[in-house]
């Protein structure tokens, strides 16, 4: 592949990524106009991502158009740094969450998760009140828990379902609590649980409460 072909490919690839970055930035600006705290909390990361992609793309695009060796080297070095950062992030994410693969329970097809299975650093981040408030507001607005009763019409269907980690940890009390399920999103809390798990007391049937403050949800 000659120099001309290489610069042609780089030019068009980066033109496309610039357009993509522009769309991401517009999306970020749109999110900032909402009063929704969940969306607003994501505004800065989205804008930062869009701006970063745009900056890299414009360096590559200008380098290819002007056939500037200096700009192309800067472009390649930045790409290398990004690739290394992604690799490091992937490894760290694996280390942090490696032990949190979930626990199986007899008679259930889905897994339940325990906060203490994760690294101490991860626990500190999740137990940060401000961080969890933002995450919780997003979970409540998603209304995944409310949809469970419509998704699974019978208790048998619920028990045989492969619930997502959010559905299993945030929408229902831990199995060890022993609360009988009335339907997919409502449990009989009059049952006296003998479990010492604090999540059993934190769970409520209210749509905005559920088990969002539980360790199983975090």
Write up this protein.
β3 and β4 form a beta hairpin. The protein has helices at 3-32, 37-41, 43-66, 69-97, 120-126, 129-142, 148-151, 155-160, 165-170, 199-202, and strands at 103-104, 111-112, 181-183, 186-187. The N and C termini lie far apart (51 Å). It is elongated. It has two domains: 3-97; 103-202, no CATH class. It contains ten helices and four strands. Its main location: membrane. It comes from Brassica cretica (Mustard). One of its GO terms (biological process) is auxin-activated signaling pathway.
Main sheet attributes: strand count, strand direction, barrel closure:
2 strands, antiparallel
Radius of gyration, taken over Cα atoms and rounded to an integer in Å: 24 Å
Shape: elongated
- The run of helices and strands is HHHHEEHHHHHEEH
| Sequence of strands across the biggest β-sheet | 1-2
- Runs in which pLDDT lies below 50 for 5 or more consecutive residues are none
Q: Label the structural class.
A: mainly alpha
Q: How confident is the prediction overall: mean pLDDT? A: 81
SS summary, helix count: 10
Strand content: under 5%
Number of domains: 2
DSSP, total strands: 4
Fraction of residues in helices?
55-70%
From the N-terminal CA to the C-terminal CA, the straight-line distance is 51 Å
């Amino acid at each position: 592949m000659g120099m001309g072909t290489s610069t042609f490919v780089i030019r068009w690839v980066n033109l496309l990524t610039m357009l993509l970055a522009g769309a991401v930035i517009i999306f970020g600006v749109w999110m900032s106009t909402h009063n929704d705290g969940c969306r607003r909390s994501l505004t800065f990361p989205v804008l930062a991502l869009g701006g970063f992609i745009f900056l890299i793309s414009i360096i590559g695009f200008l380098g290819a158009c002007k056939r500037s060796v200096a700009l192309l080297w800067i472009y390649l070095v930045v790409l290398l740094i990004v690739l290394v950062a992604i690799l490091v992030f992937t490894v760290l994410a694996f280390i942090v969450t490696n032990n949190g693969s979930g626990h199986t329970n007899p008679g259930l097809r889905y897994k339940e998760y325990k906060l203490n299975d994760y690294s101490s650093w991860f626990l500190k981040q999740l137990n940060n009140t401000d961080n969890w408030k933002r995450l919780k507001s997003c979970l409540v607005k998603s209304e995944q828990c409310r949809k469970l009763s419509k998704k699974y019409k019978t208790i048998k269907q619920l028990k045989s379902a492969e619930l997502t980690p959010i559905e299993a940890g945030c929408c229902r009390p831990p199995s060890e609590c022993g609360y009988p399920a009335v339907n997919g999103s409502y449990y009989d809390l009059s049952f006296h649980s003998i479990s010492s798990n604090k999540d059993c007391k934190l769970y409520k049937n209210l749509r905005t409460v559920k088990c969002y403050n539980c360790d199983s949800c975090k």
